[in-house]
Amino acid sequence: MLDIAWPELIVIGGVALVAIGPKDLPKVMRALGEWAAKARRMTRDIRSAFDQLSYETEIADKLKRHEQQQKPPPATPPITPESDHERPET
After folding, report:
1. Quick check: is 38 in a domain?
2. Which pTM was predicted?
3. In 40-72, which positions are buried (b, 16+ CB within 10 angstroms) versus exposed (e)?
4. How far apart are CA 59 and CA 70, in angstroms?
5. Domain that holds residue 37
């Protein structure tokens, strides 16, 4: 995800410990954890909404194609041979 290795995490933790202090560090870490959980939840919800929309669109397209295949071809008038008495005389 972020490509952060363990040594980098240790350095970040050490800087945070010095900058924030040992007393407030657990509160800050908890707040960051809650924020990360919210971000993951929102991402999951958005992905789920897009997946649902994609599924509904795919089903609608399949239904439209199926209905088009089920339509009878346009009617053509029957071909009848002309009889001699129906022909106008020239």
Report:
1. yes
2. 0.54
3. eeeeeeeeeeeeeeeeeeeeeeeeeeeeeeeee
4. 16
5. 22-56
